[in-house]
Amino acid sequence: MLLFPMFRRPSGTRPGRRAVAPAAAAVLAVLTVAGCTGSDGADDGRDAKPPAASVPTAVPGADASLPAKARTAENVRNVLLARITEDEERFGSGTESVCSTASAEMFTAKCAAAVTATGESAELALREIGGRAGFATLDSVARGLRAAARGYEASACASAPAAEATRTECRKHAAVIAQGYEDLRTGSTAALAGQ
Description:
The protein is mainly alpha-helical.
């Protein structure tokens, strides 16, 4: 199929420069009319268009095209992740946590500080949720972490209790705390799906 039917060569002739020249001239004319700048490539501003009015700028972490529930879930997630990322760097997470049951610091003030920080993150999650629907996983995780933090503190685990029953309780609470940041992250992600 020819792009420029008006420049069809007569039958029986060989294509050559003369048959191509009109097509090239037409393309060059279109490019020139389309707004090529001067030979030096500089723009003197005469043809400058005013900037588009009120172009919306993206708010970090927010997508205005999302439904209200999804935006709320995303906002909760962003607030929570900002908090837990910082604490996770200080105290570790999972088997790397100072509250891991394998950690020598599980019965120390360092784990107690992690317990306090994790409990505060759980409280933050519950405040951000504010009783709204669509946060079942995060709500459950946050309530479990709050209970574990209270249990660790009530059992005075940071003072290395001697009674084996108390130490067992401490290990149970510390294990929940050690996994807490990852569980909060998972819960906040589940909220994006309304779970």
